[in-house]
Amino acid sequence: MEKDFGSLNLSPDEVTYAYKGETYRLWSHPYEPCLYLWRGDECVCTLHNAYNTEDLVKAFSAGTTVKTNFGKDYDKEYNEACFCRVLSAALDSGRENMDFFYAAKLAKDGFR
């Protein structure tokens, strides 16, 4: 049986991520590349060096990928399913702050 890594709801007004019976609102700051995962009124995880929610909506709604350009080691593309896997790894880690690429490494290494 394949593990459920959650799903995104890509509304232009609000991007949410459903995982393990919880719904997280994704929010980004326009001046820094951070992605915040909110559950209710609490920010439960901040992913540094991440993506703007507008870019996620644009790419995933079109069925394309988001791409990183932070150097050779981090020159990766993420489709929606891979992105959900990274979000699940970040949440499962229990850390409040994490670099997006570290969360991607956890997802790749099968951290659970």
Task: Describe the structure concisely for a colleague.
The protein has a six-stranded mixed beta sheet with strand order 1-2-3-4-5-8. A two-stranded antiparallel ribbon has the order 6-7.
How are the secondary structure elements laid out?
Elements: E1 7-10, E2 15-19, E3 22-28, E4 34-39, E5 42-48, H1 53-61, E6 66-67, E7 77-78, H2 80-93, E8 97-99, H3 100-109
Parallel strand pairs: 5-8
Antiparallel strand pairs: 1-2, 2-3, 3-4, 4-5, 6-7
Helix pairs in contact: 2-3
Spatial shape: globular
Terminus-to-terminus distance: 15 Å
Helix content: 25-40%
The assembly state of the depicted protein chains is: single chain
Strand content: 25-35%
Major sheet, described briefly? 6 strands, mixed
Counted by DSSP, the helix tally is 3
Query: What structural class is derived from the secondary structure elements?
Result: alpha+beta
Radius of gyration: 13 Å
- What are the segments in which pLDDT stays under 50 over at least 5 consecutive residues? none
* H/E topology pattern: EEEEEHEEHEH
- What strand line-up does the widest sheet have? 1-2-3-4-5-8
Q: How many beta strands in the DSSP annotation? A: 8
Q: How confident is the prediction overall: mean pLDDT? A: 87
